[in-house]
Design goal:
alpha/beta; five-stranded antiparallel β-sheet; 13 strands; 19% strand; globular
Length: 361
């Protein structure tokens, strides 16, 4: 689940439609505005960015195979990313959504697909990363539309990359909103999102429990999706919880009651830099490791509100164990949501980047 993603994608679509900047308008060397033609890599490290920071300007590109851009940005920013990434043989794809109100309308969908092809050509992009979540009764038509996207991009690009962000637990959705086996025919890989598995919990817990990651990946295999067509999404952010009074700050806490919304009242998404800043602000309280989920956490009492807060997060050590699950299982690779949550000069930066597998030599 990518919060506010729908509004971000709509906003982005409006901006791209109105600007009409091309990659060659901003890139000093026009050759870097051409999509990458080398074969897709056997192993993938896809990094999501919302361009909310300038961290993309100083990436260790040996760790990256694809940048996937989501968020509130303009054509000039996209073209600048493409120009830089292509210098390092890194692909750039744009986050996209099928317009579900028109999903059964052949004419409208043909226009949608054509617009995506033209956008990719204009900005020098290498493909699309789709994110339509929570669909119902759309399995057949969605597979058909993905096939149309594949055909259109194959006609214009030598090696386009088409992927789809999906539930970590596909068996709950198979045959209803999604047909994972049919989609696999036309996707380069499927990207189960191994985060936000704590939604609506009563007890503080991990964002990306390692055993749940393993179980979800196995469901894809059970449905006939090959391991080398699966890229596991993992978080560079954690969760802050408001707890009821607790005497043991080293144990998972019980969350406070909420009036209307669990998210935003008693549970909050915080980037890893925010969590580290809070740890330092409160004199570096004891950090515990929840081995069941392979997630770290610590507690403190907020000076202003008096609330007991418990912050759960992944760091380079817990993520290394999850990267190992992917490598040992023969899966295609990992994706990170998002690199913007760890700034270039933060104390987390080097360790988090060093833990990523090297993909390009």
């Amino acid at each position: 689940m990518k919060l506010l993603l729908g509004s971000l994608l709509v906003s982005t679509a409006l901006q791209l439609a109105s600007a009409a900047i091309s990659c060659t308008d901003t890139c000093a060397d026009p050759s870097f505005c051409s999509p990458i033609t080398k074969p897709l890599p056997e192993k993938e490290t896809l990094l999501f960015t919302t361009l909310s920071s300038d961290v993309w300007k100083s990436l260790d590109f040996s760790k990256v195979t694809t940048l996937a851009i989501f968020g509130n940005y303009d054509d000039t920013s996209v073209a600048s990313v493409t120009c830089l990434a292509h210098q390092h043989n890194v692909r750039v794809v744009i986050g996209s959504e099928f317009p579900m109100d028109d999903i059964d309308d052949d004419e409208a969908m043909a226009k949608f697909v054509d617009s995506k092809v033209e956008e990719a050509k204009r900005l020098g992009l290498d493909g699309l990363n789709f994110d339509n979540e929570g669909l119902r009764s759309t399995a057949d038509i969605l597979a058909k539309r993905i096939k149309e996207v594949r055909a259109a991009f194959n006609a214009e690009f030598e090696t386009p990359q088409i992927s789809f962000d999906l539930s970590i637990f596909p068996k709950d959705k198979q045959g209803d909103g999604y047909d994972y086996t049919a989609m696999n025919e036309d996707l380069d890989f499927q990207l189960p999102m191994g985060y936000d598995m704590n939604w609506n919990t009563d007890i503080a817990t991990g964002n990306s429990p390692i055993e749940s990651d393993k179980a979800g990946l196995q469901q894809y295999i059970d449905l006939g999706v090959p391991a080398n067509n699966v890229v596991l999404g993992l978080p560079w952010y954690g969760w802050a919880y408001k707890c009821v009074n607790a005497t043991d700050f080293t144990a998972p806490c019980t969350l406070q009651d909420f009036e209307t919304d669990w998210f935003g009242e008693v549970a909050f998404q915080w980037g890893n830099d925010e969590i580290t800043d809070k740890w330092n602000e409160y004199n570096q309280p004891t950090v515990s490791l929840d081995e069941a989920t392979m997630t770290k956490y610590f507690s403190y009492v907020d000076r202003d509100s008096g609330d007991i807060m418990q912050l759960w997060y992944d760091d380079e050590e817990t993520l290394a164990e999850k990267y190992k699950v992917v490598e040992e299982g023969g899966f295609r690779g990992i994706a990170i949501w998002t690199i913007d949550m760890i700034k270039t000069k933060s104390e987390n930066y080097d360790a988090m980047w060093d833990a990523l597998p090297t993909r390009q030599l």
